[in-house]
Amino acid sequence: MFTIADAGIETALTDRLGCDLPEFAAFALLDTNEGREALTEYFRPFAQLAVNHSLPLVLDTPTWRANPDWGQVLGYDGEALDRINADAVRFTRDVAEQCAPGHEVTVAGVVGPRYDDDGATTMTAQEAYDYHLPQVRALAAADADRVTAVTMTDAGEAEGVTRAAQAVGVPVVVSFSVGPDGRLASGASLAEAIVTVDEATGGYPVGYMINCAHPSEAVLALREARDHGGSAIPRITGFKLNAAQHGDDGPGDTPEAFADAVLGLRVYAPEARTMGGCCGTDAPHIAAIAERAAV
After folding, report:
1. For residue range 60-74, what is the model confidence (pLDDT) as tens digits?
2. Domain-by-domain residue ranges, the chain?
3. E strands present in 142-279
4. 221: nearest Cα among 264, 185, 182
5. Distance in angstroms (rounded) separating the CA atoms of residues 75 and 58
6. Cβ contacts of residue 115 below 8 Å, gap of 6+?
7. Please, is 151 exposed, middle or buried when counting C-beta atoms within 10 Å of its C-beta (0-12, 13-18, 19+)?
8. CA-based nearest residue to 115, from 77, 55, 75, 160
9. What's the rounded Cα separation, in Å, for the pair 178 and 190?
10. In angstroms, rounded to a whole number, what is the distance separating the alpha carbons of residues 153 and 50?
């Protein structure tokens, strides 16, 4: 059975709901009543789609920026970040129960990258472990069903987040971002990154995804993985992709074209079951996926 996920939370909050997100940080909305109402309205249509189409749902917490570096920029110290990460899990679960009572919903605690420079700055796996452990611990302590490391651009940071999840005993999904050439910003192929993390952690991630890339860019990554033996292919469990290609400032694909392209990726990754969106996508894109997946 397919599972649907939510979409590009930051772009949806700004475009659909008119929110102001300093530093593109959605987590700060949790600290105001108006912000919490906006987050509820963001999540609501995805819950309704899941119920209407009888499909399981994954909701990501709004914590992509809720790490020490970005928290400091926004005035959040370590204690405040622990609070906001825990609150994000509880809030997302409460919204799921309110909008889809009794439905199968996975709450994924999102961990974003430390740097926002297209992979120019990296960490060792140990540095990434030390850096991300507090956020992973806070998300797990609040009973997130799993942690998802999103927009990972190199294997070292992904390994560090994975090791942090291992340390606290929470499942983890690693979601890599690829560029127009189908490769990570580090220059590694998707397959190389998956194998590196798996070998370093004993295959601890429950799966891998691709996010923050257009379907045409994901195709390049998947073809390369297939052509180099394909051992990484069975580890790919889903996609949360962009409506537009890198460098395209337009609206991107229509929801229908987007859904067809995303579901078409299963030709290369047949184990992929979780389908959602990233930048430039919103409820109509996920609705188009749900309509096709439920057939």
Report:
1. 999 999 999 999 999
2. 3-293
3. 146-152, 172-176, 207-211, 236-241, 274-277
4. 182
5. 30
6. 69, 121, 122
7. buried
8. 160
9. 8
10. 30
Q: Which uninterrupted H or E stretch holds 33?
A: helix 33-52
Count of residues in the chain: 295
Burial tier of 251 (Cβ tally within 10 Å: 0-12, 13-18, 19+): exposed
Amino acid at position 124, single letter? T
81: pLDDT strictly greater than 80: yes
CATH of 3-293, one of 2.30.130.60, 3.20.20.330, 3.30.565.10, 3.90.110.10: 3.20.20.330
Of the pLDDT bands very low, low, confident and very high (cuts 50, 70, 90), residue 250 is: confident
Confidence at residue 126, expressed as pLDDT on a 0 to 100 scale = 98
Tell me the CB-side half-sphere exposure of residue 212, using CA atoms within 13 A: 22
Per-residue pLDDT tens for 25-76? 999 999 999 999 999 999 999 999 999 999 999 999 999 999 999 999 999 9
